[in-house]
Amino acid sequence: MSEFNQLANNHKAWPFEQARLLLKRLARQGRSSGEVVFQTGYGPSGLPHIGTFGEVARTSMVRHAFEVMSNGAYNTRLIAFSDDMDGFRKVPTNLPQQEMLQQHLGLPLSKVPDPFGTHDSLAAHNNARLCAFLDQFGFEYEFASSSEYYKTGKFDQALLIMLERFDKVMDIMLPSLGGIRQATYSPFLPISPINGQVLQVPTLARDVKAGTITFEDVDGQKKEVPVTGGNIKVQWKPDWALRWTALNVDYEMSGKDLIESVHQSSKICRALGGTPPDGFNYELFLDENSEKISKSKGNGLSVEEWLKYGLPQSLSHFMYQKPKTAKKLFFDVIPKNTDEYLQHLNAYAEQDDKAKLGNPVWHIHNGNPPQQSSPISFSLLLNLASVASAETKQQMWGFISRYLPEADAKSHPLLDQLAGYAIAYFNDFVRPTKTYRLATAQERKGLEDLLQRLSALQTGENDGQIIQTEVFAAGKSAEFENLRDWFRALYEVLLGQSSGPRFGSFVAIYGRDETIELIKKALDEKLI
């Protein structure tokens, strides 16, 4: 084993910890080679949101850590499984054509018309959206459709085992249900031959030899159908166990809200003769009101929304950090995660191997981060867009080129991307909330002193650190006891916001003369 692999095997970064547990599982099973299956699940009743992406991103990080630690001893697969045969039970509020969709409740998701009019069904549309963003991020995965697996017989063997062990499944499920639900519960949900709906009805009889169940259809008549061939759909907890068993899944993580479901599905998996996968329960994402993100509410961010304002890698960075801690997931987390990603990327080249393995960019980029980062932070670009009221990247580059004469969009493509994101974020989130205020007497004194100090700077002294020293000095001359109050005043009076970047760096990129004019406008009360 190489020194690098040894470092990985002993590293405390959470993907390595998960991979280490998976290796112990394989050792217990006597598996020193062969295939290891990772899986993620998606319910296509609603549009895929960032929580969906997070599960794939995090699982991919564990998969890569496992491949490094096992030194290529196993073949790995990641199955992105869509439960598109599930019944359509509730219309998400963020979908168009609400009335039309209401008319198709109860149908398998793969039979509900697409309200967007671009695909054969709602499930097909949402599955395509899922695959599009997984492809955009370069994930290596295999897409799997529940409808296709049921109808083509890929689940037939496991379904027949579940039919045979029906009573064991019922013994596991019934204690978790209320009295009314117990009376009607069955792990098998027949698809009505009459209206095509997924029926929540009791199993009246079963014939293990024939592989069939009997139920009462919507017309009141008893019907006997095979459990194979797409004639039934399994209830979701037994379905989860069915999937684990049929696909020999070794690893699947899930949200903290599914801890009890994992427990029950694991029991059913064992009853079917399978071994439940390893994994962990991650904390849930919260919206701006600290409420759980829900597909039916549509209160989460879509991947497309994040990517309008931030680097794809910033989203992966958000997913890497503290997966077992509940985190707010709203637009205001994008700038912070963008800059933290850039900071980690800047630090990577100078780190030793141990530090690199703990750097988020190693996990985000499958151990091969890009060499070029951005010489300017996203927060600084965002404030530049704000003060300059920039509408185009060309306007942004007009300032950037003076600060970095050798840089252009071609030589610094990442910086060019960031400039575009900054403009979009400013126009949608910063501009509507900008509120300037007048300076107090003490603040005016500091601004007047800063004005003189900037005017006195010589050519070639447009360095961020030199300017920052002058900014500190102006605050001290105005007798601010806490210089944080001085900097807050600069942001509120000059930028119309409560916080901002390192002010000296901002002046260096915005321009000394432009900053002087900005201060004059503030002193003349022309920014209000």
Can you walk me through this structure?
The protein has helices at residues 3-9, 14-28, 50-69, 98-102, 122-136, 146-151, 156-164, 166-173, 179-184, 236-247, 259-271, 303-309, 312-320, 334-348, 353-358, 360-364, 378-388, 393-403, 413-430, 441-456, 464-477, 483-495, 503-510, 512-523, and strands at 34-42, 74-82, 142-145, 188-190, 205-207, 212-216, 222-226, 232-234, 254-255, 281-282, 285-286, 327-328. The strands form five sheets. A three-stranded parallel β-sheet has the order 1-2-3. Strands 5-6-7 form a three-stranded antiparallel β-sheet, with no helix packed on it. It is elongated, with a radius of gyration of 29 Å. Helix 20 packs antiparallel against helix 21 and helix 20 packs antiparallel against helix 24. The protein contains 24 helices and twelve strands.
Lateral strand order in the biggest sheet: 1-2-3
Residue share in helix: 40-55%
* CATH homolog superfamily of the domain at 3-166 and 238-282: HUPs
Residue-averaged pLDDT, rounded? Answer: 93
- Category from helices, strands and their pairing: mainly alpha
CATH class of the domain at 3-166 and 238-282: Alpha Beta
Fold-level CATH name of the domain at 3-166 and 238-282: Rossmann fold
**Low-confidence segments, ≥5 residues, pLDDT <50?**
none
From the N-terminal CA to the C-terminal CA, the straight-line distance is 66 Å
CATH architectural type of the domain at 3-166 and 238-282: 3-Layer(aba) Sandwich
Helices, by number, come to 24
Main sheet: strands, sense, barrel: 3 strands, parallel
Q: How many strands in all?
A: 12
Gyration radius over CA: 29 Å
Shape descriptor reads: elongated
Percentage beta strand: 5-15%
